[in-house]
Design goal:
Elements (H helix, E strand, L loop, with lengths): L3 E10 L8 H5 L4 E3 L4 E3 L6 H4 L3 H10 L5 E9 L8 H15 L17 H10 L4 H5 L5 E3 L6 H7 L6 H11 L2 E3 L3 H14 L5 H30 L10 E6 L7 E3 L3 H4 L1 E5 L4 E6 L10 E3 L4 E3 L6 E2 L5 E3 L8 E7 L2 E10 L13 E2 L1
Antiparallel strand pairs: 1-4, 2-3, 5-6, 7-16, 8-9, 9-10, 10-15, 10-17, 11-12, 12-13, 13-14, 15-16
């Protein structure tokens, strides 16, 4: 069977990077460690660039303490071109790193091959407290920084069974991490910066004072208005329940009269038996307002399609019962409608006195 080898054609960093600088130390042409995270350099996004750097990328992925370096490989026929040349490849990889850092001189670091030291791996695991999950667990808030001393020196400074607080202290003391400033320290730093700037002029002070007093007055005014609105009774704007619906002579012929539909919510209907009734404009289904369709001689609800005869009786749609009627009476030659008294057909109330006016 012909010999083959694997070459990396794509590399990326999954969420959870602790910015430990191990990947850039191992393979600087591919990985760029920044203040808050680590990114893949633009030139390393091409397969032609990553293929010859396969051993360094694999070593960086294996040495990542949080295992966030991922890559994709393809199988290539033939022996690996870098077999037996790992040392030369590491020296050659260090040259592009200087150009990528804008001319900053950077010596190649020789990192021992093989699995990471267990004590060093435990140290990184314990000290990784920058995520929200670790902060909610009670860990100290720290900001990861590039190590000032080799990892082996930090690991050797710890005892075999060093407690977590001792490990964190070693991390801080070695310069590997730097504690985040507290809120009080940030406030003091900001105040110190302000004291070093030029002081306010008299005009600026007066403007700031006026704005502050204006904000205070507006706050108290809003609170007073809300209190007044809460304590003072609301005056209803509803129309009166008892009103005059014009003269009896205003309804000479059978039909539906809509002059009080908008203002009072009432249709005055003269039926074919010459009785006069006041019909509510509220649909008995869900409270919509039907429309009178003269051509069809029916009330039709636009919301759900309920239909009512001119008498108010329902005959189609979801309406469960007829329209309600209000009390009507005569005051001399005027028609009085009392909306506080209702009559319902399904309760047998349409034949009661006041449910209709015989003319």
């Amino acid at each position: 069977m012909a010999e083959t080898h694997q070459e990396i054609v794509k590399v990326w960093i999954a969420p959870g990077c602790i910015v430990c600088d191990a990947c850039e130390t191992e393979c600087p042409p591919v990985f760029d460690v920044q203040e808050e995270t680590c990114v893949i350099r633009p030139e390393a996004l091409k397969a032609e660039f990553t293929r010859p750097l396969t051993p360094s990328i694999i070593a960086a992925a294996e040495g990542c303490p949080v295992e966030v370096i991922k890559f994709e490989t393809v199988e290539v026929p033939g022996p690996a071109p870098w077999a037996g040349k790992e040392a030369q490849a590491a020296e050659a990889a260090a040259a592009p790193a200087g150009a990528a850092h804008a001319g900053a001189a950077k010596k190649a670091v020789t990192v021992p091959q093989g699995p990471p030291d267990p004590r060093w791996a435990g140290l990184l695991t314990t000290a990784h407290t920058t995520t929200s999950a670790s902060r909610s667990a009670g860990g100290p808030s720290v900001e990861l920084r590039p190590a000032k001393v080799p990892a082996e020196a930090i690991a050797s400074a710890l005892g075999k069974d060093a407690p977590p607080d001792a490990r964190t202290a070693a991390m801080v003391g070695s310069g590997f991490v730097r504690p985040r400033p507290s809120v009080v320290e940030r406030i003091r730093a900001r105040a110190g910066a302000l004291t070093q700037t030029q002081g306010m002029t008299r005009r600026q002070f007066n403007v700031a004072l006026a704005v502050a007093w204006g904000a205070i007055i507006a706050t108290f005014g809003t609170a007073a208005a809300a209190l007044q609105s809460f304590l003072v009774p609301k005056v209803t704007k509803e129309p009166p329940s008892l009103f005059r619906a014009g003269k009896l002579s205003d309804y000479p012929n059978p039909g539906v009269y809509e002059q009080f539909k908008g203002s009072q919510g009432v249709w005055i209907v003269r039926l074919r038996d010459n009785s006069l009734v006041a019909v509510s404009t509220i649909c008995t289904h869900l409270g919509c307002i039907p429309n009178w369709l003269p051509a069809d001689q029916k009330f039709k609800c636009p919301c759900h399609g309920s239909g009512f005869y001119m008498t108010g009786v329902n005959f189609e749609g979801p309406a469960p019962r007829p329209l309600e009627r209000y009390k009507v009476a005569l005051d001399g030659e005027y028609v009085l409608v009392d909306k506080s008294v209702k009559f319902r057909q399904e309760l047998g109330q349409w034949t009661l006195p006041g449910a209709y006016l015989q003319v």
